[in-house]
Automatic annotation (TrEMBL):
Disordered: annotated span: 1-25
Species, as recorded: Acyrthosiphon pisum (Pea aphid)
Record protein name field: Uncharacterized protein
Keyword Coiled coil appears in the UniProt entry: yes
Biased segments, Polar residues type: 1-14
The organism's place on the tree of life at top rank: Eukaryota
Length: 141
């Protein structure tokens, strides 16, 4: 029984040899770009003045790079702004056209009301004439 347990114990204690072989066969990739800027790399024996001087120039460089990056807007933003401006312009033009149409409709409405008033006046005159004729007819009968 101990013989049957021993292979499992051996496996739990150490990883399989294939796994060790695979991981050791792969070369470790070192980053080609140093993560620490050169201005911050210094040895213990160097004077501290160099450390004080270098960051100020690198800080200026970093600020100028940030300004260059922040001044550039992505192309989709400029296209969006152009489309937005075009839409606003067309909306203003449409609003002006609608206002012109509304003004024309109001003028037509005023003209129609004036014509209706004239027609009503003529009908009243015609009605008065008919009433007078009726009165004359009643007197004669």
């Amino acid at each position: 029984m101990e013989n049957s347990i021993s292979p499992t114990v051996r496996q739990t204690v150490s990883p399989p040899r294939d796994l060790l072989h695979e991981s050791s066969a792969r070369p470790l990739l070192e980053p080609s770009i140093s993560l620490i800027p050169e201005s911050l790399e210094f040895s213990i024996h160097e004077p501290s003045q160099r450390v004080m001087e270098e960051p100020s120039t690198s800080g200026l460089i970093q600020k100028s790079l940030l300004n260059k990056i922040s001044n550039k807007t992505p192309s989709w933003v400029t296209k969006f702004e152009e489309l937005k401006n075009e839409q606003l312009k067309s909306a203003k033009e449409n609003a002006m056209q609608l206002n012109d149409r509304l003004d024309k409709l109001e003028k037509r409405e005023e003209a129609m009301l004036k014509t209706q008033e004239e027609l009503v006046k003529k009908l009243e005159d015609a009605n008065n004439i008919e009433l007078q004729k009726l009165d004359v007819f009643k007197k004669n009968v």
